[in-house]
Amino acid sequence: MKVSTVITVAFASAASAYPYNVYSVGAKGWLMQSADNSSLLFDSDINMATNWTVEIRNDVHAFQNDATGDYISCDDERACKASKEPGDFTIEGPYWDTSMAATYVIGVPNDDSVWTADNHFLLHAPADETDNQKFKIFENKD
Q1: Closest to 118 in 3D by CA, of 61, 42, 5
Q2: Would you say 17 and 132 are in contact if contact means Cβ atoms under 8 Å apart?
Q3: What are phi and psi of 3, to 5 degrees?
Q4: CATH for 9-139, among 2.80.10.50, 3.30.200.20, 1.10.3720.10, 3.30.1440.10?
Q5: Rounded CA gap, 43 and 86, in Å?
Q6: What pairing do the DSSP bridges indicate for beta strands 102-108 and 40-43?
Q7: Which superkingdom is the protein from (predicted)?
């Protein structure tokens, strides 16, 4: 399935006044960077989610960790990782779940893959429409 870009109202401006937190529906955890900064994973036990700035460049999005300055990149064969160079992503949605909460699918352009929570790590894989490929993106106003 080729992922198309659908920009929502929340991401309509080039920069938001607030950072975002990303939650995996399938992993039931918040996207964070590991302590050694090498891995991206989902953790349900943390008290405070990692803040991400969502940048819009040429119709694609980049996610930057506010604390480390690292970006998310999915250039490796299957793994997504922290990088000093921004990765390009599409955001498709919102899709509404049974509780009427917005979920999104985050695509990797030119790869026909999407973000996937697998064993609590962020990977990219072909789209299969499972909960492991659905994410909630919250603006953090705290």
Answers
A1: 42
A2: no
A3: -85, 130
A4: 2.80.10.50
A5: 23
A6: unpaired
A7: Eukaryota
Instruction: State the Cα angle at 76 between 42 and 29, rounded to 5°.
Output: 5
Q: Phi then psi for 131, rounded to 5 degrees? A: -60, -25
Q: Hey, where are the domains in the chain?
A: 9-139
Quick one: CA torsion of 116, 6, 137, 108, rounded to 10 degrees?
30
Tokens of 111: 């790869």
Stretch (H or E) spanning 10: none
One DSSP character per residue, 52-101 reads EEEEEETTEEEEEETTT--EEE--SSSB-EEESSPPPBEEEEEEE-TT--
Q: pLDDT tens digits for 100-136?
A: 889 999 999 878 899 999 989 999 999 999 999 999 9
Q: CA angle, corner 73, sides to 12 and 26, nearest 5?
A: 75
